[in-house]
Amino acid sequence: RVAYLIEKGVSPNNILLLTFTNKAANEMKQRAADMLDERCSQITACTYHSFCAKMLRKYSQLIGIQSDYTIIDPGDCADIISIIETEHGMDKVKDFPRSSQLVSAHSKALNTNQSLEDTLFDMLGKWKYMEIERFIPDIKKILADYQSYKKQNNMMDYDDLLINFISVLKRNPSIKNKLADIYQYIMIDEYQDSNAVQERIFQAVSRNGKNLFMVGDVKQSIYRFRLADPSIFLSK
User: Which residues contact 192 (CB under 8 A, 6 or more apart)?
Assistant: First the structure.
């Protein structure tokens, strides 16, 4: 489809191709170029997170974030939370959730719009949740301090990239319209592995969803652990 559009006169600058790994994005650009010519390699082809990161480098100051922010991975997030747990004296408390569990719970709550309590209950199960329920106020304080730590140190985790870009679009309709004018053809690979937050972004960037082209197979959803929701695809 990339090769076809460009052959028909569409500018590569007007095409956005999204998938789940940079390797897949680069391979698809090269395959299109092999079918047609090097113009195909000039399209914007990337992952959801790298697209949001690219946009935030341009527009994050509109929501009060410096554009030279540092992106931190889940391992970094867990290390930061471990430091905060130690500061709160919770690092050696019996039954207190591990920092990696708090990273996962925080991410899931953001991506599913669930409360922290419901998220932890789903993740841990009834009996384990009952063991840590008394720590909920401490967990919320630690996660609040985690948010403050990132802000003070100009950092964003992977969820921040998506959520802050949504914030840019919501607060600045002119940016949303500008991006819709640029990316007149948006193609999404492995659409069955999209989640609700990603769906919000690209419905906003597109022309009310009318220039989206999605490919996927709901029977091959492999990112449930990242909160992929195949029902989004089934609803189209």
Answer: 216, 217, 218, 220, 221, 228, 230, 233
